[in-house]
Design brief:
The complex is a heterodimer of chains A (115) and B (110).
Chain A (H helix, E strand, L loop, with lengths): L2 E5 L2 E4 L5 E8 L5 E7 L5 E9 L2 E4 L6 E6 L2 E6 L8 E8 L9 E3 L3 E5 L1
Chain B lengths: L2 E4 L3 E5 L4 E3 L1 E4 L6 E6 L5 E7 L5 E3 L5 E5 L4 E6 L8 E7 L5 E2 L3 E6 L1
């Protein structure tokens, strides 16, 4: 079966420290992968998406970066965190569009608090 | 460009009464529309999806939604609210890059 793993679940980091959030997908190949951020009281903002290994598209300018070193692995990083990076981060995957649109499957999220 | 508008930021109902969460979309091509639910500090769970088959879509937990092209709407309904339905609901247009509405918080009173 297809599953998505996201970790850690919660994270408290000081301003200026680095960040690495990891997301992996099982049970599928060549998924489209997405990173979203949900700030308190606001909707979901698409940060990055990837349609293949090494292919990253950024939706908004920001302090974060993403990488896809393997087909089913998507990493969100920062060299130096800002207070404004606090939020709830969600990873999602989506079947390659040619195979039909079955919706997006989300990980359980990471609550990041920058202090 | 795609956009999704959820017309209400909060909806408050009493347990046992009907639920209506409104969503309007704009898309230059045939849309793929979804409703997701998010309980506090949890990921998003798919409730139902419309992908150009039947216009009335039935989902999990008694929810359903009707796709109305003439009104560019995809409203979510449930005949009778339960306390466990209290959560944040997101309407999504996902035919290309997923576009989320800002969310509707459903409050259910006993």
């Amino acid at each position: 079966s297809q599953t998505i793993h996201q970790w850690p679940a919660t994270l408290v980091q000081p301003v200026g420290s680095p960040l690495s959030l990891e997301c992996t997908v099982e049970g599928t190949s060549n998924p489209n992968l997405y990173w979203y951020r949900q700030a308190a009281g606001r909707g979901l903002q698409l940060l990055f998406y990837s349609v293949g290994i090494g292919q990253i598209s950024s939706e908004v300018p920001q302090n974060l970066s993403a990488s896809r070193p393997q087909d089913r692995q998507f990493i969100l990083s920062s060299k130096k965190l800002l207070l404004s990076d606090s939020g709830f981060y969600l990873c999602a995957w989506h079947r390659e569009r040619r195979k039909g649109n079955y919706g997006y499957t989300f990980g359980s999220g990471t609550r990041l608090t920058v202090v | 460009a795609q956009s999704v508008t959820q017309l209400d930021s909060h909806v408050s109902v009493s347990e046992g009464t009907p639920v209506l969460l409104r969503c309007n979309y704009s898309s230059s091509y045939s849309p793929s529309l979804f409703w997701y639910v998010q309980h506090p500090n949890k990921g998003l769970q798919l409730l139902l999806k419309y992908t150009s088959a039947a216009t009335l879509v039935k989902g999990i937990n008694g929810f359903e939604a009707e796709f109305k092209k003439s009104e560019t709407s995809f409203h979510l309904t449930k005949p009778s609210a339960h306390m466990s339905d209290a959560a944040e609901y997101f309407c999504v247009e996902g035919s290309y890059i997923p576009t989320f509405g800002r969310g509707t918080s459903l409050i259910v009173h006993p």
